[in-house]
Amino acid sequence: MSELKNLIATAKEKGSFPTLMMAAEKLKLVSKYSNEGPFTIFAPVESAFEPIPDDVIDESFDDHDYLLGIINYHIVEGRYTTKDLEGLTELETISGNKLKITVKDGIKVDTANIIEADIECSNGIIHAIDEILIP
């Protein structure tokens, strides 16, 4: 088995999260999520951004505080596998808000479905989700 990479390197290598990676770079979070942890990231895949008009995404990227609030709502301190999530009803994000966890025909985080689970990283875990989480 190859050595695990950090959250950022793994997410980049997967290629499923280009808009999320752009946001991490814009907010200067690459170093933090490369070196600190453990964190669990609920990462929206690229198709999650498709319903949002480009100008709305551009405006969000120009509002540092708003963008940081959205990103921080997708991140939880600690490493939570799907097995861990199955026993929970909520998780507190690093923004201080709570994510609702439901288990029925898979695992939902708020309204998003986990579509690729338990992507192991050296400093945490990524779960790919099909929607953007909004606090």
Automatic annotation (TrEMBL):
Residues 4-133 form the FAS1 domain. InterPro entries: Adhesion/Biosynth-related (IPR050904), FAS1_dom_sf (IPR036378), FAS1_domain (IPR000782). It comes from the Archaea. Pfam families: Fasciclin. This is Fasciclin domain-containing protein. It comes from Methanolobus sediminis.
